[in-house]
Amino acid sequence: MNTLYDMLPVVGQNAACTLAGVYRAYTRHPRIFHRRLAELKRTRDLPLDELYQLQWEQLQKMVSRAQTYVPHYRDLPECSSASDPSVAIRETLDRMPLLTKEVYRENAQSFISADIPKRSILRGRTSGTTGTALPLYASARTVAEEYATVWRLRDAHGVDLQDSHLTFNGQLIVPVKQTKPPYWRNNMYQRQILFSIYHMTTRNLGDYVGAIHDLEFSYVDGYPSALYQAARAMLEQGRPLEKGRMKAIFTSSESLLAYQRETIEEAFGASVWDRYGTAEFAVSMTACSEKNLHVDMEFGIVEVDVLEETDEYVRGPLVVTGFANDVTPFIRYRIGDYGTRLKGECPCGRAGDVFSDVDGRSDDFVITPDGRKIGRLDHIFKDQTTVVEAQIRQTTRESINIIFVPDRRFGPKEEKGLLQEVRSRLGDEIEIRLLPVESIPREANGKFRAVKSVAT
Ligand SMILES: [Zn+2]
After folding, report:
1. How far is the CA of 306 from the centre of ligand 1 (A)?
2. Above 60 in pLDDT, residue 38?
3. How far is Cα 385 from Cα 395, in angstroms, rounded to an integer?
4. I need a surface site. Which of 19, 55, 220, 446 has the fewest CB within 10 A?
5. What's the gap in Å between 32 CA and the centre of ligand 1?
6. Which helix (H) or strand (E) is 406 found in, with range?
7. What's the CA-to-centroid distance between 388 and ligand 1, angstroms?
8. Contact at 8 Å (CB) between 92 and 64?
9. How far is the CA of 48 from the centre of ligand 1 (A)?
10. CATH code for the structural domain at 365-453
């Protein structure tokens, strides 16, 4: 796909990255984006009843439009007539059927709203790391809404659109065969240096660390797993950035694991601000100073299909209703991720629904021989300072393989400690095999998966 690009000299590839930057800036940041961002900044700290009022107005508009223009939703029930917005939202959603990925995948065309001109429809696909890829549709407005939430978070940390930055994400911008630096390209239009995450081998990481020190930039964004690799190399070489040299780090696209956050913050000398969004443009959550994820209530409604409940939280699959995607409205859609919603208010003071974490898909769990589904296993590795990175793979209930990258200090004592830590969470029955490797392969889209399970 990239052959023509691959044949260009580096200066030509920089020009191509810059042109792509111009295109991105115009599709992501049109006038409607700036208007929406200004609105979102105004509504961020509204009290809860006003946020519900906003959601209720959006939900009514969405349902009425869906009934009129979206074939799949023709027979959608009417909205509640309750006068309290929070009650009306609850009653309305309770009447609506749940939407699964399977139903959407098989009938995707019938979700396209007839009032959007065909030429205005942007087409895409989920990356499909597991299962079949989903066809996806959006409009310029959808994309602008999405990026308005991204930039509200960035704005809150003093970052603006003109700031220079480094990006570590899945874009193929350096030919795979290249074996000499630079493993990064320059998008001059957006003052962005794009680092290839596909060339981050032990041999090359020194070049990355050197570049990070040589470049001037205000913030960093990217996949947590890639930033973690760079951060780890910076610390190993005794070359962290001095605190305060740059403003902030923004992660997205993968679950931010506890051990990744600590290392990235230490190496870059700035705080990590995570965001949870999806390719369907159906949900947005952004991090706060308490390391919680707040639902961007103006963007949509998030329900939890409760599987587990304590005094502090409810936990289970997320069911989302998003207001941003006007081409294919998603109403009560099981997005495939799990979340833990806190019952109390967040100490940071921001009102609305707040999650302590969103941790991936149903196949991100390990199943024990007695049938328990265990998630959030990244915490196992949080205190294992001699394990660089690890992935748990499970094909049957009876056993798991832990593929891991040990560092020089990893010995029998560390192995025992790691096994104990795993046993404390998964019990004594499951068979555990530790398999040291030099590196852990990424998915085709460059993303890292902490757990891969096909056991049922
Ligand atoms: Zn908070």
Report:
1. 22
2. yes
3. 27
4. 19
5. 28
6. strand 399-406
7. 30
8. no
9. 14
10. 3.30.300.30
With cut-offs at 50, 70 and 90, classify the pLDDT of residue 1: very low
Does 415 have pLDDT greater than 60?
yes
Distance (angstroms) between ligand 1 centre and the Cα of 217 equals 27
Please state, rounded to an integer, the average pLDDT across all residues of the chain: 93
Query: Do the beta carbons of residue 454 and residue 395 sit within 8 Å?
Result: yes
What is the dotted CATH code of the domain comprising 3-360?
Answer: 3.40.50.12780
Rounded distance from Cα 313 to ligand 1 centre (Å): 15
Residue 52, number of CB atoms within 10 A of its CB = 22
* Ligand 1 midpoint to CA 358 (Å): 14
- Using the predicted structure, report yes or no on whether residue 433 has a pLDDT greater than 80: yes
Q: How far is the CA of 350 from the centre of ligand 1 (A)?
A: 6
pLDDT tens for residues 162-214? 999 999 998 889 998 899 999 999 999 999 999 999 899 889 999 999 999 99
* CA of residue 343 to ligand 1 center, whole Å: 12
Mean pLDDT, rounded, for 72-97: 97
> What Cα–Cα distance (Å) separates residue 226 from each residue in 48, 380, 398?
37, 20, 32
Question: Among 208, 270, 262, which residue's Cα sits nearest to residue 245?
Answer: 270
Say how many Å lie between the CA of residue 275 and the centre of ligand 1.
13
Tell me the CA–centroid distance for residue 321 and ligand 1, in Å: 21
Counting every residue written for the chain, the total comes to 456
How many angstroms is it from 286 CA to the middle of ligand 1?
Answer: 9
How many Å apart are CA 117 and CA 146, to the nearest integer? 20
Q: pLDDT tens digits, residue range 101-159? A: 989 989 999 999 999 999 999 998 876 545 567 899 999 999 999 999 999 999 999 99
Domain boundaries, the chain: 3-360, 365-453
